[in-house]
Hints:
The protein is of the alpha/beta class. The chain has one domain: Rossmann fold (3-Layer(aba) Sandwich). It has 9 helices and 5 strands, in the order E-H-E-H-H-H-E-H-E-H-H-H-E-H. A 5-stranded parallel β-sheet has the order 2-3-1-4-5. The protein is globular, with a radius of gyration of 16 Å.
Amino acid sequence: MRLIFLGPPGAGKGTQAKLLTERYAIPQLSTGDMLRSAVAQGSEVGKRAKAVMDAGQLVSDEIVNEIVSDRIDAPDCAKGFILDGYPRTVPQAIALDRMLDQKGMRLDAVIELKVDEGALVRRMENRVAETVAAGGNVRSDDNPEAFRRRLEEYRAKTAPLSAHYAGTGRLKTVDGMADVETVSAEIEKILA
Ligand code: AP5
């Protein structure tokens, strides 16, 4: 099973991808998590990505395409994977199409989560409050200014991917405003 989750920041891509990893025993490939880990390690990629991520902007296509291409060659991706937060621009989607072709792989579904912007902001605020209450580290891009920029980046660069994937016949849209369990059940129906 090879899946893509599309949707704005806070739509629930990571939450739903995690649930599916358990159900299908395939890994969640979150480019956001991979980049945050590179930043934490202070690697060359991390150094280049940090300021861009903190500002709520997108890291260059070149960097993320390379990260994903290497990651899907790993043995744990042999049975499939869930892409969470990639692709995020039309050039990334074209690079992914080419990459999968070269590796002899094909996508099974592209699932888009639709959530109102007001709800997205509230989810980000809840995540911050929960993280603080648990004594954890708040994401450096979970603040009003960076989140506003993340939404702008989404509208300008990621939203056009719906049309890209609608053309392939693999795009399925799910109402992401419902609770986690209802959204998950909808996704299950699509994948069944
Ligand atoms: P990334 O880490 O991918 O962040 P994001 O897309 O902005 O999304 P989030 O992680 O905030 O949201 P999500 O949709 O996963 O929702 P979640 O399940 O967490 O990217 C971060 C940055 O990295 C980017 O800004 C960019 O700089 C860089 N980057 C990453 N990929 C890139 C790429 N391909 N190209 C270039 N740059 C890239 O849920 C959010 C909250 O809502 C949680 O608290 C959750 O508990 C809650 N929640 C989830 N579902 C529900 C529900 N149904 N009802 C109520 N609450 C819910």
